[in-house]
Amino acid sequence: MIAYNLGLSTITPVDIIDILLVSLLLYQLYKLIRGSVAVKTILGFSTVYLISWLADKVGMRLLGQILRQITGISAIATVVLFQYEIKKFFSTLGSLFFLSGKQLLVRIPGLKKKSDLSFNITAIVEASKILGGTNTGGLIVLSNTEDLKFYIESGDLLEALISKRLLLAIFNEESPLHDGAVIIYQAKIIAARCILPVTERQNLPAQFGLRHRAAIGMSEVTDTLVVIISEETGQISVARKGILEHNLSAQELRIAINEYLKEG
Ligand SMILES: Nc1ncnc2c1ncn2[C@@H]1O[C@H](COP(=O)(O)OP(=O)(O)OP(=O)(O)O)[C@@H](O)[C@H]1O
């Protein structure tokens, strides 16, 4: 076996692969919890552990005992509290194993391949504004990194350049394509009439029906930004990482899309 002697220890190619895989895993974990409530919860758990350890050290038996009980249930609490992050982590790992070589390059940090075309943000913003103004429902999934093959296959393939007129034509109530979601991958409208996974969350306000629930569900399990135009109120919302930002102006929608594309 090939091995490199760097003085202190011998590094083999397997060690290098090992380090690369661990870095990839840690990067995925970091991406998942970055900016989410998970960070605060982890800090909370760590504080309880620390106080419990200190209480034991200085002989505060009662406090130590109570805190130990709390830390004892933290394993179960972690699974319940982080069910979204855990689900997302495994679905990301799963999709990594089923990526083609080209898609794998897109996922490796630093090697992210930018699309040759640029996302026509203005077309998406203007179409959303018009749809909202005429109380026409719309559901648009933006993906910069995942090809969303599984969801694309549930709808009708289009592979067209993004244009305001095309988006308006798709969501026109007379159109046979208006039901379900449009999926935009990199800079193209890939498919329409797609079926998205509906969130299982119970605590959503009653005003949010299936369109909003499907948007939240999709953003929970994929790295996408989902734009919703409400048929009932004409309001524009976006869902990202399971969080819904409601009643956005055209300018706010533009900012949300820009931020997503920068992140992606
Ligand atoms: N799983 C799904 N995937 C994609 N689109 C869906 C899904 N479920 C519902 N929809 C779309 O949402 C429409 C129904 O929206 P519904 O009125 O229940 O939602 P809503 O959140 O109250 O939105 P609105 O404010 O527009 O009424 C359907 O006609 C369909 O186009």
UniProtKB/TrEMBL annotation:
Transmembrane segments: 6-30, 37-54, 66-84
Pfam families: CdaA_N (PF19293), DAC (PF02457)
Family label: Belongs to the adenylate cyclase family. DacA/CdaA subfamily.
Superkingdom of source: Bacteria
NCBIfam families reported in the protein's UniProt record: diadenylate cyclase CdaA
InterPro entries in UniProt: C-di-AMP_synthase, CdaA, CdaA_N, DisA, DNA_integrity_DisA_N_sf, DNA_integrity_scan_DisA_N
Organism (species): Amoebophilus asiaticus (strain 5a2)
PANTHER family: DIADENYLATE CYCLASE (PTHR34185:SF1)
Job description of the protein: Catalyzes the condensation of 2 ATP molecules into cyclic di-AMP (c-di-AMP), a second messenger used to regulate differing processes in different bacteria.
Name used for this protein in its record: Diadenylate cyclase
One MF annotation (Gene Ontology) recorded for this entry: ATP binding
Gene name, Swiss-Prot/TrEMBL: dacA
Quaternary structure note: Probably a homodimer.
EC number(s) from the headed UniProt entry: 2.7.7.85
Gene3D superfamilies tied to this protein: DNA integrity scanning protein, DisA, N-terminal domain (3.40.1700.10)
Residues covered by the DAC domain: 83-250
SUPFAM superfamilies per the UniProt record, alphabetical: YojJ-like
